[in-house]
Amino acid sequence: NLSFKTTPEALRNFFDGVGEITRIHMPMKIALRLNMPPENRGFAYVDFATPDAKIVAVTLSEKPLIGRKLLIKDGDDFAGRPAALAVEESSGGKTHSKTALKILRAQKQPPAPTLFLGNLSFETTEDHIRQLFDAHRRKPGKEKKDDKEENDDEKPKETGDDWIRKIRLGTFEDSGLCKGFAFVDFSSTDNATSTLINPKNHHLNSRNLVVEYASADAVKRGPNKPKPVEGVGSWKDSRKKSGSRPTNGRPDKPFRKFDRDTGGGAVGESGGRGVDGAPRHKGPRNRPKPGAALAQAKRQSAAIVPTSGKKITF
Hints:
The structure is a single chain. By secondary structure, this protein is α+β, with helices and mostly antiparallel strands. The chain contains 10 helices and 14 strands. Among the domains are: 8-69, Alpha-Beta Plaits (2-Layer Sandwich); 96-138 and 160-220, RRM (RNA recognition motif) domain (Alpha-Beta Plaits, 2-Layer Sandwich), CATH 3.30.70.330. It has helices at residues 8-14, 51-58, 98-105, 126-135, 149-154, 160-163, 189-196, 216-220, 235-242, 290-296, and strands at 21-25, 45-48, 64-65, 68-69, 90-91, 94-95, 114-118, 164-171, 178-186, 203-204, 207-208, 210-213, 256-258, 265-267. The longest helix has 10 residues, at 126-135.
């Protein structure tokens, strides 16, 4: 993870005080243009005089040099860079335990308000899952109760039905039994995280469950958003009531309804439908509908037509 501008002299200054350096091998790139400054390939080999100096040099791993955190390891070690911590030890003023950090680091999906449950038994129901999470739900602490009595009375209390929005249980169509997995949609990501990091929620019906954040597609298939209130600011609401679009105060124009007998058009009532309630046909007023035009087309006879005229002999 060296910067391309790093030189052997910069490495010597970086390891100053570690021990005697016997050799620095830094592969360089091929210059593409003349007068181009040489650049390294992003790595180098440094040999020390003693094994103790090498051990001390490895402890300097992840230290910055020219804006890059170096990865320093033994030359015989072919393992990559160790995985960085996916989560912080504290978030939102709350410090997670070591078990909670271990669970969060093992997550493959980003935090989301939906959890995936796997390895469920066939007899599992939605009530079993809801009772499990409600029983192990973290309750707010009782500290400073006297100072917050007035505020607690004003704030609405969140019940167990509110923090879990929906439980989507995969079931068989014929028997209705659980397929072994489920998705639980919470009201917020914090509620989902607090349920995830609790080890007691990872066991149900003598089975070790697979509890993790759901994928983005599973979150999108969650409970529908609340529908807008009817009659508030949308022309669709007024259309449902009146049966037509609002005309912004303009009168509806009359239209002509095709008459199959005469082939002409007659003025009909306004409002988008004809006299007999048939929908208005869009297009030129005197132009018949495609079906009517085909019905009124002149038909040619298929019989043998007798000859007419005078025969000329040469």
